[in-house]
Recover the amino acids of this structure.
């Protein structure tokens, strides 16, 4: 139970198209992440699955049953909102038991289920409190608890961690992954945070302008992005994209390109190379470049360097052994050509 | 150009000078009458005989007021009118505000304006308009009731038992819009998320109204009811003008505020009127406290 299929889903607000044909099969029990920049339609898609937005055309199937016109509460989906959306005038216990109450479950059974869920989430001592008496992390747990109590077929998360501070976010990430393992329920998780996408998802769907740009496992997307957009969206610092030098290209640009791209490569318009695949050597040994900004993180250093004749800075991620570099230093670059990714003029990857 | 030094304000005094117009006016028209009425409450005084005619009577005025049949009658009238005009105000205003909130998009401001108009209209104009509407033989209300239900002409303002409902209706009509505006403001602050969460939790429209909307409105209900209680207990203008200042047949629309006004200016007993006004004040405080107890929001706002 908990299999969601999207068939040719479209959504328009008046004349404005928001979702332009999404086909997707969410497998039973998987943790699928919708990721993309703001305005790409990922939240709208989630809300359409939830039943909070109507579907303009296309079919939504939940466990094989057409759910387009089933009301939100009856789709077997539970949602955790970005703002948590806890009812402020109800205690934690009442918040968690509200759906059961609406479903006509008896008071004793409600209490029993709520206290069992609260125990699993370690929030039993909060049950009598009101939402305003809770910290952000506690509210988050209660919101998740409210979703779990309903025993849904599929959980929908709409950027649930974006209101938490960085440390708590890491904790909740681990917690949610643990929860997914324990419950084994299908989860669809919307985020714009690529770290959340990479660490939590069994699969990731990258959204761009109302379409799914690519669907696959995190490492698949990272290593074999279908398009430049996917390559650029995943990974920090951003992937380096080097355009084919024209006749007026500078010597350094040409040299860099030749190192990256095999000689017989007519169709390649741009080459992508991740920051960790750019090694820093002495100026004499590699392609000469000037350090514009050096970010030393302690365990690693991120260097933003300029190659003469290239408009964009090249990002390089190295070990802590380069921590002596400062802005203005001259270095050499040695790209790991075998890790380069090639794109044609339309931005699609070429093998 | 520099002013000569005796015309210049030192920075030390400037703030006091600038704030003094308000303080002086407030002292004369606010603080003084307040304290003077407290003083008068313990005096027997007929103002036409001059200040020397004051005579200390201790709690005599209070004792008189509490034994005065008309005082109790006026309190009963006030309570009746406050309930009959106040309760429907809120019972109608809340659903009406929810309806306007959900159903009107572009016309919204116009609709709110229409409901709010009576509130900013002069009481005198309203009272004159309604005395014409309520008139026995030629009034629009009787004409309407007659043609719709075949009701015989009702003597709204000439019969003791009809005056109170007429006054209550006017007060209800006048303050409905004000309450609608209060509740609309509160409705706008309820996060949309809560309704979406309730949708997901399977709550229907009615359940959302009772489980989300009403509890979220509670702080505003407290505020609105408190204003109604205070306003209701001080009700004066509408019945005063409608009944020509006398309270109507059998004083059946004579509110406490009207009675203590008559006590002072018709019967020339300023001491008695002051004592009554302080009794009324005590009542307002008590009722406000009770309202606060009854409508205090559970768990507080977000």
């Amino acid at each position: 139970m908990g299999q969601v299929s999207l068939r040719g889903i479209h959504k328009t607000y008046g004349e404005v198209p928001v979702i332009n044909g999404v086909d997707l099969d969410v497998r039973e029990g998987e943790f699928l992440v919708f990721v993309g920049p703001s305005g790409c339609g990922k939240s709208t898609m989630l809300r359409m699955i939830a039943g909070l937005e109507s579907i303009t055309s296309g079919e939504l199937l939940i466990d094989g049953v057409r759910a387009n016109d089933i009301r939100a509460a009856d789709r077997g989906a539970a949602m955790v909102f970005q703002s948590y959306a806890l009812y402020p005038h109800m205690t934690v216990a009442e918040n968690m038991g509200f759906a059961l109450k609406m479903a006509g479950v008896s008071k004793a059974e409600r209490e029993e289920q709520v206290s069992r869920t609260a125990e699993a989430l370690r929030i039993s001592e909060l049950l009598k409190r009101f939402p305003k008496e809770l910290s952000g992390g506690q509210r988050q747990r209660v919101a998740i608890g409210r979703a779990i109590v309903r025993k849904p077929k599929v959980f929908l998360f709409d950027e649930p961690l974006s209101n938490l501070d960085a440390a708590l976010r890491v904790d909740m990430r681990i917690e949610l992954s643990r929860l997914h393992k324990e419950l084994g329920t299908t989860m669809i998780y919307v985020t714009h945070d690529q770290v959340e996408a990479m660490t939590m998802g069994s699969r990731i769907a990258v959204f761009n302008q109302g379409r799914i740009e690519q669907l696959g496992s995190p490492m698949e997307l990272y290593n074999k992005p279908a398009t430049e957009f996917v390559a650029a969206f995943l990974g920090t610092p951003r992937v380096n994209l080097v355009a084919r030098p024209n006749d007026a290209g500078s010597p350094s640009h040409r040299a860099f390109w030749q190192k990256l791209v095999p000689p017989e490569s007519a169709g390649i318009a741009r080459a992508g190379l991740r920051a960790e695949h750019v090694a820093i050597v002495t100026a004499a040994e590699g392609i000469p470049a000037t350090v514009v900004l050096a970010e030393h993180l302690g365990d690693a250093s991120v260097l933003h360097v300029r190659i003469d004749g290239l408009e964009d800075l090249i990002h390089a991620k190295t070990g802590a052994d380069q921590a002596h570099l400062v802005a203005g230093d001259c270095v050499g670059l040695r790209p790991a050509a075998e890790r380069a990714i090639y794109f044609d003029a339309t931005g699609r990857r070429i093998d | 150009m520099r002013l000569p030094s005796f015309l210049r304000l030192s920075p030390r005094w400037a703030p006091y000078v600038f704030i003094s117009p308000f303080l002086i006016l407030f002292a004369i028209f606010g603080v003084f009458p307040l304290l003077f009425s407290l003083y008068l409450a313990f005096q027997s005084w007929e103002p036409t005989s001059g200040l020397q005619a004051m005579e200390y009577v201790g709690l005599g005025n209070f004792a008189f007021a509490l034994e005065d049949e008309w005082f109790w009658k006026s309190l009963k009238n006030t309570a009746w009118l406050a309930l009959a005009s106040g309760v429907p105000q809120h019972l109608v205003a809340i659903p009406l505000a929810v309806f306007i909130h959900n159903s009107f998009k572009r016309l919204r401001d116009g609709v709110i304006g229409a409901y709010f108009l009576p509130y900013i209209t002069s009481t005198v104009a309203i009272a004159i308009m309604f005395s014409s509407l309520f008139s026995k033989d030629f009034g629009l209300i009787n004409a309407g009731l007659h043609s719709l239900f075949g009701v015989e002409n009702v003597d709204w303002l000439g019969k003791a038992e009809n005056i109170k409902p007429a006054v209550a209706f006017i007060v209800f009509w006048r303050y409905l819009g004000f309450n609608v505006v209060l509740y609309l403001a509160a409705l706008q602050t309820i996060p949309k998320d809560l309704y979406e969460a309730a949708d997901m939790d399977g709550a229907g429209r009615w359940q959302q109204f009772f489980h989300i909307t009403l509890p979220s409105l509670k702080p505003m209900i407290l505020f609105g009811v408190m204003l109604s209680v205070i306003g209701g207990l001080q009700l004066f203008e509408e019945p005063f003008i409608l009944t020509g200042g006398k309270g109507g047949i059998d004083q059946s629309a004579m509110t406490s505020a009207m009675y203590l006004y008559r006590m002072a200016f018709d019967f020339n007993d300023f001491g008695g009127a002051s004592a009554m006004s302080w009794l009324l004040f005590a009542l307002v405080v008590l009722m406000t406290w009770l309202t606060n107890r009854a409508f205090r929001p559970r768990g507080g706002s977000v």
Notes: The beta strands of chain B are 43-44, 55-56.
